[in-house]
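Batch job 17 of 40 flagged for manual review because the log was empty.
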Amino acid sequence: MARRYDSSTTTFSPEGRLHQVEYAIEAINNAGTCVGILAKDGIVMASERRITSGLLAPAKVSEKTYQLCPHVACNVAGLTADANILIDQARLRAGRYAYQYQEPIPVEQLVEYVCNYKQFYTQRGGLRPFGVAFLFAGYDEQFGFQLYQSDPSGNYSGWKATVIGANNQAGKSLLKTEYKTGEEGEESIPGVQDALKLAVKVLNKTMDATAAAAAEKMELYTMTLENGECKHRILNNEEAQQVIDAVEAEGASAGDS
């Protein structure tokens, strides 16, 4: 029955489903894993680097993390070429808002704009959904640090910690047990350094278990606030390896005890 309705994004099946949109969402589940964690003093995003060939020249810029404007960045899971279109639209919208109103665009308003653009491609004939999901990290004066997740359908939601991409359910189950939501008080929410370690733990769980954890296979990003301005930083291989070694040391000491 599904085959009669899965060739168009504009036709509902008798069960009330849009199969092409569901297929696009399923494609994200085969993409490299991305982790987002809200810390009390910033945001951490970590992503899996999939090295397809040793002959490839090293990338000059990150292929997983993109800065949209001075106070918003995103992580990408899925088709990078599709993501480039949406990233350009987001940057254009943020720039026009800043020019028109002389202030930074609110984080959720920018996320909503990108998601509306994605939703348009699920409701017009002859178009296909964007095969990409995002984690948006941002800061504004009204709501502070914020973390959002969006999928190809155009839906978005705010999270304290989440995972997209391959094995995301395993990653989310680990976050449920390891992440302190702040119910015990603000002090229980992890700081950026603890969030980095937790992100590495999640990637270790979601990545291929037969391969050893290495800095070359992970990209760690932090957003913090310094003198009222957002500071975006991608850890280099040495710094990432230090975080990985700290996580392995904690795991070894826990095993010994």
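Reviewer: the log was empty due to a logging misconfiguration, but the result itself is present. The chain has a mean pLDDT of 89. Unflagging and moving on to job 18.
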